[in-house]
């Protein structure tokens, strides 16, 4: 009885590891890049700039909202540069919806930004948050399915890996790019839902922690 093998991602022949890496590299790079904004918030805390704003009646929620709005333009530029480099330098071919892929990248960037503000709230100097971001970058590269499929790891380790903020979005972006799937597939929808949940939860915890400090 002849057997027919179908590739889960891409093609069985002629596909390099670089092509498989692309979605994970995109999500991880954008996440870490935008989380670096937390360093600026730590600097403002150390220089007591944020305290002056509090005295003037500016609430932390106002700062977060203003930062998200002002950094949206920066995030859009970053996403555009990443897509340009992947398409023209690494032959990225998005078989699915470009709109969905770009929107997911944008949400992942916002998620990284919200994590950056959370780390800034939990630390008091720039070196602490830099060490956290360096550690997080390594964990994301190893454990979020960027360089190795999570389907091949032990179930106990896979559960922990799926709890990382870019694991499920990476799988969703990979399905959009290689499979051409849309929101009618659960795996793609999960990526958007998980990313939005991380944004809401981290921002909510961040605002709650700052209110408790007062």
Globally, the shape reads: elongated
Output the helix-strand order.
HHHHHHHHH
Give the beta-strand count: 0
User: How big is the Rg?
Assistant: 19 Å
Secondary-structure content class: mainly alpha
Tell me the helix content: over 70%
Distance between the termini: 72 Å
Count up the domains: 1
Total of DSSP H or I helical runs spanning 4+ residues: 9
- Mean pLDDT rating: 83
Q: Could you tell me the strand content as a percent range?
A: under 5%
Low-confidence stretches: none
Largest sheet data: none
Description:
The chain is an all-alpha fold and 214 residues long. The chain has one domain (18-213). It has helices spanning 17-35, 37-46, 49-55, 60-89, 98-122, 126-143, 155-162, 167-179, 186-213. The longest helix has 30 residues, at 60-89. The chain is elongated and about 75 Å long. The chain starts with 16 loop residues before the first helix and ends with a helix. The relative contact order is 0.16. The model has no long low-confidence stretch (mean pLDDT 83).
Summarize the helices and strands and which ones pair or pack.
Blueprint: H1 17-35, H2 37-46, H3 49-55, H4 60-89, H5 98-122, H6 126-143, H7 155-162, H8 167-179, H9 186-213
Helix pairs in contact: 1-4, 1-5, 1-6, 1-8, 2-5, 4-5, 5-8, 5-9, 8-9
Short description:
By secondary structure, the protein is mostly helical.
Notable traits:
mainly alpha
